[in-house]
Records
---
Amino acid sequence: MSRTGEFAVRAGTALALFGAATTLLNRITVRQLRTAPAPVDEVVTVCVPARDEADRLPRLIADLRAQRGISDLGVLILDDASADGTEAAALAAIGDDERFTVVRTDIAPPPGWTGKNAACARLAELAGQDFGILIFLDADVRLTPGALAAAVTELRRGRAGLVCAWPRQEAGSALERLVQPLLAWSWAATLPLPLGNRSLRPSTAVACGQFLVFDAAAYAGIGGHAAVADRITEDLALARVLRRAGTRTELVAGGQVARTRMYRGARELDAGYTRWLWSAYGGAAGSAAIGLYTALAYWGPPLAALLGRGRVRRVGLLGYAAAVTGRLLARSTETGGPPTRADALTALAHPISAAAYLGLSARSHLAHSRGRLSWKGRALGDAH
C-alpha cells in the first residue's frame, strides 16, 4: 500500500477511535429517564398530531390513559385530514376518558408550512397556555406508565426550556436494523453530550421530534412551531431557535420509558429518510463532508483489515473494532441496558449501515433537486 493509502487508514482509525471514546463518555454520563421520584402538580398538556395513524394511535392512547404521577393531565389529538379512520379509532380508544379531546381538520397546511408543523401549531393554539408543560408526541411512540412524569421532572430539574427524551428505536426489517440505530449513534459518536447540553450554541443542539417536552412559556416566547414553519427537521430547528433566544435545551436517553418503531419496512424507511436527509447537514456540501468522513473512518479501516497486510492490516483491525465498539456503546446509551445479540450483529455490519445511510442521503438530495419530495400524500414543496 502507498504512503498515502497508509496515512488514510491511520487517519480513519484515529477518527473511529475518537468516535468510540465519545460514545463511551456519553454512555457513562448521559442521563437516563426513569420513574419520577415525586408527582407532578403542574398543568401538563400532551399534543399528538396524527395523519393516517388509525393502527398506531390507539396503542399510544392506551399508554396515555395509564400515565401516573401527573395530577392535571390533558391530551389533545389532531386528526390531520386522515383517510383511514384515525378519528374513529381514537374516539373508540378514548372511551369516556374526559382528559382527551379529538379534533379533526380537513384544511391543507398554509403556504410555507409543512403538514406536521401546521398540525402542531394548531394543537398549541388549542391548548392555549403560556404556563405549565406542553408535550408533543408522535403517534407511534409507546410509553411506560411513568414516562411523562419522568420527562417533566427532568425538564424542571435541569431548568431547561426543552427536554427531548430520546426513545428506544425499534426495528423489524433488515434495513431498519441497519439504519435506525444510526440515529442515536450519529450524536453519541460525535458530541460529548454533557457539554452539548450545557451549551447555548445552536450547533451543539440535539433533538428528536418523537417526544418533546417544552416549558410552555419558553415555547410561546419563540412563537412555537410558527418559528420553524417550513422546516422538515422541526425538532432540531426548534431547539436551535430556543438556544438563540438564550434558553437551554437538553437531550436525555428515554429508552427505558419510551420506544418507537419509526418506520415499518424498507419502503417506508426509504420514503421517510428521503423526505428529510437532504436537510440534515446544511445542504449538499455538508452531506458531501459527512460522506468523506464516513468513507475515511468506517470504510477505510475495515477494507484495510480485510485486504491489507502487516501493520496496515493491524491498524485497520483496530479502526474496525473501534467502530463496532462505538456502535454498541451508542445503542446501550439509547436503550439504557446492555446490547442484545441483534445489536451485536448489526454493529458488526457497521460499514454496510454507513453505506445504506449515505445511499439514502444521495437519494434524498436527488429527490429534493427534482422537486419530488412528499410525505403521506403531501408534496413538501419548498420546505427546508
Note: The radius of gyration is 21 Å.
---
Amino acid sequence: MKWAEGIDKLGISLYLMLCIFAIFNIYSVKEELGQKQMIFFGISLFVGMIIFFMRTKFFENMSPIIYVGGVLLLIGLFPFGTEILGQKNWYKFGGFTMQPVEFAKIGTALMLANYASNQDFDIRKKRSLYTSIAIVAIPGIVVLMIPDVGSLLVFFAFVMALYREGLSGWLFGVIFIFAATFLISIAIDPIYVVISILVITAILVFFNFYKIQGNMILIIGIVLTVGVLSGLSYSSSYVLTKLPKHQRERIEVLYKGEKAFRDTSGYNLLYSKTAIGSGGFTGKGYKQGSVTQGKFVPEQETDYIFCTVGEEWGFLGSTLLIICYSIFIGRIYYLAENQKSTFNRVFGYSFASVLLIHFAINLGMVMGLFPTVGIPLPFFSYGGSSLLAFSIMTFIFFKLNYADKNSLV
C-alpha cells in the first residue's frame, strides 16, 4: 500500500513486541494488572492512530501550550497531588491515577525541538544556550521540589539532544567529574579525595605550564574548580545525612551491599538479584518463578519488572529483551539523524535519550548498579501514565518521520 511506504515498520514492530511481551509478564505477576495494562495498551494504540491522522505542524505549533500545560500539571501536584509510596507526584481520579511528570517530558521535548528549529538558534550563543537550559530546567526544578529525584535524572536526557545540536562536550565532563567526586567521597575519607584532586591538578598544570602561565582567567578557573571539588567532597557526607532515611539507605546499599539493609532498602534488590540469578540460562518458565509467584519483590510489576523476565525467561530471554531495546533506541537515533527538519531531529534525539536513560537506570536498579530511584522500564512497567506517555512520544516521532519521508523538500 502506497500510503504505508513512509511508516518505519521495524520501529513500530519493536514497539508492539515490547508492549505485548510486557503485558504477558505483568499478567504473570498479577492477572488483574495484566488485564488493565491490556486496556492501557488499547487506549495507547487508539491515541496513536489519532496522532497519525494529525498534521505534523500541529505538534510544532502547539508545543508551547503543551509545554506550559505540562509544567502547570506538575505545579498542581503541590495542592492537589496524592502521596503514593512517600512521593506526592500523582493525581488520583476515583480508582485511576495519573503521573504528570511523564507528560511533562513530552512537552519539554516538543518545546526544545520548537525552539531549536528557529532560524536564529545557535547553541554556541549565550542566548540560545541559556534559553535551552531554561526550557529543561523549569520543569526539572519543579520535579526536584516534589521531590522526585528519579524523574529529575531523566531530564538530563535533553542535554544529550542539545549536544547533537552543537553543545560543547565539556558540560558532560563537568557533570561526570562532580558526580564522581560526590559518590567517591561517600566511600572514601574526603581528605584522600582532596589530595587526589590536588595531585591530578598539579600534574595537569605541570604539563600545560606554558599555556596557563599569564592567563589569569584560566588560573582563577582552576583555583575555583579545585575549591568547589574539595568542598563537594567534604559536603557529601553532610548531604547524605540530610536525606530521608530510605533515600540515604538506597545510596548506601551500593557501598555496603543489600544484605546490610535486607529488612529495609536492600530488601527489593536482594530478592531482585535472587530472582534474576535463579532463572539460569533459559528460565523457569512462564508463571513458574518461585520469587515472582511468591510476591517476594515489592513493586515487581512496575520498577522491578525486569526481575520477572530474568526468573521466568532466564538469561536468554533477558538478553533478547535488551537487544530489542537497544535496536529500538538505536533505530530512533538513526532516523532522527536523517531527518530533514531540525524540529524532527531534536525531538527524535530527545525521545531516544529519554528512553536510553530510563532503560539504563532501570536495569542498573534491579541489578544493584544504581540506587533505587523509581524509574519505570519504558513500555514494560505496569502503569497507564507511563505507557501512554511513551506511546504518544513514539507515535509523534514516527508520524514526523513518515511526513519527512513523504516530503518533497
Note: The two ends are 22 Å apart (CA to CA).
